[in-house]
Write a structure and sequence with these properties.
Helix content is 47%, strand content 12%. Strands 1, 2, 3, 4, 5 and 6 form a 6-stranded parallel β-sheet that branches. Strands 8-7-9-10 form a 4-stranded parallel β-sheet. The chain has 16 helices and 10 strands. It has a single domain, classed as Metal-dependent hydrolases (TIM Barrel), CATH 3.20.20.140. Helix 3 packs across helix 15 and helix 12 packs antiparallel against helix 13. With 415 residues, the chain is α/β, with parallel strands linked by helices. The termini are far apart. Helix 9 links the parallel strand 5 and strand 6. This is Dipeptidase. InterPro entries: Metal_Hydrolase, Pept_M19. Pfam families: Peptidase_M19.
Length: 415
């Protein structure tokens, strides 16, 4: 399987069957008017939307209403309205490829294309959504009755051939950058690969300095514990884990140990709790027949961003039938809340938020698209958190970090 097929397979394994989606819908408590009012009063954002990967799919439009059970997608403008979601960070994701000049050039080109696709979406729907470049832009855009879009980069691989390209991506709107993804790269060790650098490479340390200089939030999600520790220690501005979990709740290398969570908070940083089933549950028992069938399904349909909408609907229907034959365990809202409440108790509401990792394999039963976010507000109120706490969790903390990042840059201009 190609890397694209592997990524699609992971996303499909995480997506619900029609039966589990219907069950989740029927069992999620109705949101009380009081909870909805608290939710709507906050600036609600998600720090990691992989939705730009869908922008090149033939016939798929961000302004149309979609359904996760139909085409697998989890974020669009109508469902943002349903979920009271004001905006988020739209990721320029690049899978790690060869660490060669040709690989670096291809990664840079792919990332530039993805950035352009995001901007094309924003131009097409300028009456509904607008790019945000500063922390204050979020409230300004919301006051106009629109949604806002920050840009981020997941995996710094596109910068490997020329780290100076960070300036260009900053000019395109990128305000948060992750160092690595599933594999080590020229900048840092991955949480899910054999350590190569013992943390940040010399090139990674230089990249961190450039992030601080420009005003880009460092994001060590997907990076090793050593990377996280070094970034927290060396960054001149607070750090955001855009989509990570808690290792004390479930032991997985993508989740963060308590000591580093405390250090992150001590330096003003934020962890955005990730709704990703594979980081919350043990892997399913091996099943060669299921894996063979899933591989055949992927091969039959090819790259997801090249499919028509009809092909995607057919793929999802065949996938549901396959998973009815070979059921897969999937995390649920209770698992997500366990991570969230643990982190809140450990480091407090000034340093915790949420991200669904939607359209990138994320989502759990009961929290499977942006329409589902208000249920967490209800849960947080029942757990004793205040309206102000909830406003911080949903967006205030990340906007505070961005504002502090901007202040650092302003105070060091010409220095």
């Amino acid at each position: 399987m190609t890397k694209a097929h592997l990524f699609l397979a992971a996303a499909l394994m995480a997506a619900p069957t029609l039966a589990t989606a219907q069950a989740a819908k029927s069992t999620v408590p109705k949101i009380s008017p009081a909870a909805r009012a608290v939710h709507d009063a906050a600036i609600v954002l998600d720090t990691h939307f992989d939705t730009p990967a869908l922008f090149s799919r033939p016939g798929w439009d961000f302004a149309d209403r979609h359904a996760v059970t139909k085409d697998g997608s989890q974020v669009d403008l109508p469902r943002m309205v349903d979920g009271g979601v004001d905006g988020g960070f739209f990721a320029i994701y690049t899978a790690q490829g060869p660490r060669t000049k040709a690989g670096d050039d291809a990664a840079r080109a792919a990332a530039l294309v993805r950035a352009v696709e995001i901007h094309e979406m924003l131009v097409k729907h300028a009456d509904k959504i607008e790019i945000a470049l500063t922390a204050d832009d979020a409230a300004r855009i919301v006051a106009k009755g629109k949604r806002f879009a920050y840009l981020s980069m997941e995996n710094a691989y596109p910068l490997a051939g020329d780290p100076g390209m960070l300036d260009a991506f900053y000019a395109l709107g990128v305000r948060m950058v992750g160092f690595a993804h599933f594999k080590d790269n020229d900048f840092a060790d991955s949480a899910t690969d054999k350590p190569e650098w013992g943390g940040l490479s010399p090139k990674g340390k230089a990249l961190l300095d450039e992030m601080n200089r420009l005003g880009v939030i460092p994001d060590p999600s997907h990076s090793s514990d050593a990377v996280l520790a070094q970034v927290i220690e060396q960054s001149k501005t607070p750090v955001v884990l855009s989509h990570s979990g808690v290792r004390a709740v479930f032991d997985h290398p993508r989740n963060v140990p308590d000591d580093l969570l405390k250090k992150l908070a001590e330096k003003g940083g934020v962890i955005q709790i990730n709704a990703f089933s594979s980081y919350m549950l043990p892997p399913p028992p091996p099943n060669a027949e299921r894996d063979k069938a899933m591989a055949a399904l992927m091969a039959k349909f090819g790259a997801r961003n090249k499919m028509t909408e009809d092909q995607v609907v057919q793929l999802m229907a065949e996938r549901r039938a396959l998973l009815a034959q070979y059921p897969m365990p999937r995390a649920n809202l209770e698992d997500l809340m366990a991570h969230l409440l643990y982190a809140l108790k450990l480091v407090g509401p000034d340093h915790v938020g949420l991200s669904g990792d939607f359209d990138g394999g994320g989502g759990v039963d009961g929290y499977d698209s942006v329409a589902d976010l208000p249920i967490v507000t209800e849960r947080l109120l029942k757990a004793g958190y205040s309206k102000d706490d909830i406003a911080k969790i949903w967006g205030g903390n990340v906007l505070r970090v961005l504002r502090e990042t901007e202040a650092y840059v302003a105070s060091h201009k010409g220095g």
